[in-house]
Amino acid sequence: MKPSSAAYIVGLALLASQSSSAALPDCVNGPLKSNKVCDVTASPADRAFALVQAMQSDEKLQNIISKSQGVSRLGLPPYNWWSEALHGVAGAPGVSFSASSPWNYATSFPMPLLMSAAFDDDLIERVGTVIGTEARAFGNAGHSGIDFWTPNINPFKDPRWGRGSETPGEDTLRLKGYVAALLRGLEGNHAQRRIIATCKHYAANDLESWGGVTRHNFNAKITLQDLAEYYLQPFQQCARDSKVGSFMCSYNSVNGVPACANKYLLQTILREHWNWTSGNQYITSDCEAVQDVSLNHHYAPTNAAGTALTFNAGMDSSCEYTSSSDIPGAWQSKQLTEATVDRALRRLYEGLVRAGYFDGAKAHYASLGWSDVNTPQAQQLALQATVDGIVMLKNDGALPLNLHSRTRVAMIGFWANATNKLQGGYSGKAPYLHTPVYAAQRMGLTLNVAPGPILETASAQDNWTANALAAASNSEVVLYFGGLDTSAAGEEVDRTSLEWPSAQVALINKLAGLGKPLVIVQEGDQLDNTPLLTNKGVSSILWVSWPGQDGGTAVMQIISGMKSPAGRLPVTQYPANYTQLAMTDMNLRPNGSNPGRTYRWYPNPAQAFGSGLHYTTFMAAFANYSASLSILNILDGCKNINPDTCALQPLPVSVVNTGNHTSDFVALVFVASQAGPNPYPIKSLAAYGRLRNITSGHTATAALPWTLGSLARHDENGNTVLYPGSYTLMLDQPTQMTMNLVLTGDPVVLDKWPAAS
Question: Is the pLDDT of residue 10 over 80?
Fold first, then answer.
């Protein structure tokens, strides 16, 4: 079991700072040079086979765990498979940050949920390229591996989930677009991977600890329809479409079978149905998940038996803090055979071969080094990623503020001047952490700064209100920096409430009573903003998640009008009473006590998926588009192996800036239909794109790509089906324009889902 979230992340950072640099293979002078694994002219499969063939049995068993021991006899160095890079190279047992330059920091981007709010896949690919470049530079210097356990792409369907901010949000189309772009950046587009990315946590891992159930013993009961339609869609993108280098199986069970011992997930779906075999890719377990098979799921009578089940099901490496699996026991009992071990090792080492690990100076990315870390371009991109993702959820006209050196500004709240509050989970050492106070000082503003409560209740001893009111009374405008810090949600910590902490609400109400412009800047996960939306003394609300190394600068650029907000919520903001729904209920569609999950099925949000205000006004419209499409003609004109990826004619949209501020605009197109069997989703995201820098009075146009999969649905057996009928396309949230589209022909199964065994 991992310790609490905060302690766990601190522990990873400490391990990273204390671990020594790893040795790299020597294919020039060492004994390894005589092995075919060093022959750059041989195929990756042959190179990996030669290395595994040279190992003795006991040596093999020492290298199917995350901290693999290598084989000194062969000149194969130890290798730690556990490196992290969720939003920048991060602390992990396989990552080593130095105490001083070089290798003492890496660019720290905002949390993925905020970057996703930008709805710009080109931006995400650029972010992935920076992270992948810096990660490979660390690996080249022996300060990390060259495989990294990122991204986290479990859909964020329940707002209480502690790790939701690590993901791109709740919508599968957004998740797939984000992960496709990120993987292009992380792994690169050459024959050799820049790094090996790892899609996690496969599958249905979106609970940490709730109601006496933990991720280590949770059995996610999921219909085939929900599994195929929702929980596995991002992983389909990773495996079938992006062909990512590795997967991580999760702690939980799915329909009674632990994920890491689940042949249906690992073999039937992943390797067979999605054909994830072209590069002999590998699967690692989440850390200690192998032990969970017997200890917590009670799916096997002994740890040895559970260990054998996981490898036999298709897992290739066990992540462990200590020796938590029982590989020796599984081997001695003959439940784990040499053929299975060899298969796992060949997959693992072929992965490293395909990333140039054994190629030394001949590796495609061998030249990457310290000069490629936190470049000026990376710094600017980290700032842009935060600015572009910030979502304005309320504005009575107070923003943007007209600030100048004589403006007296109160900056109140727990993270106004706290560098240790800017980064979310799985963060590394940042080169700098610029708070809002730092940014305001750089602007030359006259500041009155006061701290504030975090998670305290209104009945807690109050040592903040007097100072906060004094700061506000001496100022012309009040900026309140509140919300949640990482102690409220994270690894092994789910939330139990969606309400603003009562001590913060009490303070906000008192500040609102002063009658001055009051801007709320909310950090962390979504809260029910109803009390702030209805409070006339609250002028504006900005949501910034955990904004990264230049978060304060980004916030002040938005507040001052140097930049304009254009982000959109990538999640639903639920009312506080949504917590009545059990986190263990995995059903998406409304039934009984379940009111529905995500914007597709839940009709009464506090603030809707896709919400986001601007400093200007926009008029968005569809341009001319064919009102009728033939299913047969579309399929006849598409030769894609997977018909759901067949492109439709792009959706043309035009956007006119009818206000006074230059701004970006995120175009969201939703689809609703009663084609096919009921129940019907309220609406589903079909296409999106970001139009940039639209000046006042000008029009921007875009052709938004979409596919047959954007219109298809999933039946009760999990099949992807395209139904004929009438479809309504809706532009923007809230809707500005609708367009009707008719699909003619017969229903067609675009993807036949494998039956569960």
Answer: no
